[in-house]
Design goal:
It contains six helices and five strands. By secondary structure, it is an alpha/beta fold. It is globular.
Length: 145
């Protein structure tokens, strides 16, 4: 189910949130979503806006297309289209868990850490990093894509 920003407070304390660009969506993301869903709360995937993805690479898919694909995954309960910084979403949603890949440990932005501390959001680092979008893009380019 796609959740508009104004409905995020209605899910406060009830979900696990993951966040990212998910472009391109790949098997490592699926492992990440499964592990986050296994924490026991419904899973909300916060999908970064196209400008954020564009800072890393030319987007393959628009945010709307990425949301449509992620919303079709059975382990995902909710999808949200991020419009600004992730800290704004965390502040409105106040999820039970904020799940990130283990590669983010010690690297989370200060604003996200502050919002989680202020609202009692438990940050969980998942050891599911089996691939990255950067690696997928690098392999694609090496094949002459």
């Amino acid at each position: 189910m796609i959740v508009p920003t104004d409905e995020l407070p209605g899910l406060a304390g009830a979900v696990t949130m993951v966040s990212g660009g998910f472009d391109p969506l790949h098997p490592g993301h699926l492992a990440y979503f499964r592990a986050a869903a296994d924490l026991g709360a419904p899973l909300l995937v916060n999908v970064s806006h196209d400008d954020w993805v564009g800072r890393k690479h030319v987007p393959f898919l628009t945010q709307a297309e990425r949301i449509q694909l992620i919303d079709a995954l059975r382990m995902v309960d909710y999808v949200h289209a991020e419009e600004g910084p992730t800290s704004d979403v965390l502040r409105l949603l106040r999820p039970r868990y904020f799940a990130k890949g283990a590669d983010w440990e010690g690297r989370l932005p200060d604003d996200e850490l502050a919002v989680c501390a202020e609202h009692g959001v438990e940050i969980v680092f998942l050891d599911t990093v089996v691939d990255s979008s950067t690696d997928v893009l690098r392999r694609f380019q090496q094949r002459g894509g």
